[in-house]
């Protein structure tokens, strides 16, 4: 019996049909021969199987881009073969399965679709419709595969950012003699963050607390933040003052970052025995000094200068203050102060100071929970537009004043 001339599909570009393998059960009928001839005429690599078990075996061994299952198999129900193929699919894989059914077999259509088939064709198969359906489902597969690849790439980048972020943003800061600290961090979204913080014991026995915010988000912001952390640790370990450290950091940023990149930073060096506090800021939000015994919380405004990475002729300055026993130093990034509610109103420094002033009877963890809960309430549980970083540092022992002068 002669086989009619197959109708070719119109496939071009990345969907070139020669790249696709179609699995077909050869039922040794004229209809089966017509389908094979049509698919081959369109340039598909046709893999003929003898039964359902052979389909499962060949797909597992050689792979496939599309499977055509007839309504009758010598060894299995088509629905069972479909379920087995779906069960063996890997995460994110997409294998189009088309059932071949008679136009009167409504039960076979429903059973096939329920088992996981994507579509069906009526037997005897029309070559033109076969070509169109196969091309259409291969296009859908192509788009699905590109989406899966993009998702996998995003997942890999997300894992990279998570690893980098865990080094920049530890869940807790190290604790030191006479000094306790707690920290809260919330990222602004899936992208990497520019916030970073750390605490470092210096060779002379003092402790340096640092918080910074690199402009932008994503992997680039994380990389820049990692660079900033490395430079800050190295410079502080040399015994330079906060202002001198910012000076060195500024030179490094100007020589390594793009001209549009900038970074804000605050550095506090605390003597755990005397409470002497030397600090400086580069365009960063000023810290708050909370004195629980006096029910007071005041904004400290250290000398400093503009954000890092902008001007090469800036001189930063230190300020000298005292962190008394029981006193608390509160550090934050802009995300806390600039968090907006539905009307666009920012959280603000005044609200933060007012709330801190009533936390004198609370321990650090309770005070932190109260403030962060209030910030979350203000932004109404929405994903913040900027990273949220808040650090509370308390001096728990040592000798005792309170002055602020430019050093």
Attribute tags:
407 residues, alpha/beta, 7-stranded mixed beta sheet, 5-stranded parallel beta sheet, 10 helices, 23% strand, disordered N terminus
Q: Could you estimate the helical fraction of the residues in percent?
A: 25-40%
Biggest sheet descriptor: 7 strands, mixed
- The average pLDDT value, as a whole number, equals 85
Strand content: 15-25%
Which H/E pattern describes the elements? Answer: EHEHEHEHEHEEEHHEEEEEEEHHHEE
Low-pLDDT residue spans: 1-13, 401-407
End-to-end separation: 102 Å
How would the global form be characterised?
A: elongated
Structural class: alpha/beta
Task: Report the total helices.
Answer: 10
Number of strands: 17
| Radius of gyration based on Cα positions | 33 Å
